[in-house]
Amino acid sequence: MPEDEWLLISAAQIIDTPADDWADIQVLDRFVSLFGRLIIKCKKGNTFSRYVFNLSKYLDQAIVREVLPCVYSGEKFEGYDHVHLPYHRLSDIFNGRILPIYYEALKKITGVYCLTDTHTGKLYIGSATGEEGVAQRWGNYLDSKHGSNKKLIALYEQKGAEYFEKYFTYTLLEYFGLSYDPIKILEREQYWKRCFDTIKNGYNDN
């Protein structure tokens, strides 16, 4: 978490404070749905009880920074140069189970990508030029597995959805802004197809 931002882990009422023992508490059920999701911006300082404190003392300065769609996992979006996702991780991101910021990041770019069949080593090179960028295109693969591509459809009909879920990974090769010329993106797609010879030795058919 950035400095002065706090993740709500629990909220409870103190029932009793016995001598030489931990306080007896009762978890406040009405806040349970926010545990691990509510981020508060509050300048508390490096004082005693750094991670457990009475929030009521800071309510005049505390600001709700964000309510995450899923429980915070501690993982971070490492940047567009490090997008390399196996199928199930991609599915978890798109369904809001982990790294919700990842999906938003993929909506902001167009680009050229590579699908890798880790069982055979075959590649498929594609491009994303739609209004919602790479997220829109990769969402199509999650829905259909094959993305309406001829050789991938044939693989799907032969092997089934489970094959894609087990063996396919999704890698971003190049990324551009949403307003970048789609013709130039298609030219870059063809460049990568030639580099990896994916029409002859992979899943591209043109």
TrEMBL record:
<dbReference type="InterPro" id="IPR000305">
    <property type="entry name" value="GIY-YIG_endonuc"/>
</dbReference>
<feature type="domain" description="GIY-YIG">
    <location>
        <begin position="108"/>
        <end position="202"/>
    </location>
</feature>
<protein>
    <submittedName>
        <fullName>GIY-YIG nuclease family protein</fullName>
    </submittedName>
</protein>
<dbReference type="InterPro" id="IPR035901">
    <property type="entry name" value="GIY-YIG_endonuc_sf"/>
</dbReference>
<dbReference type="Pfam" id="PF01541">
    <property type="entry name" value="GIY-YIG"/>
</dbReference>
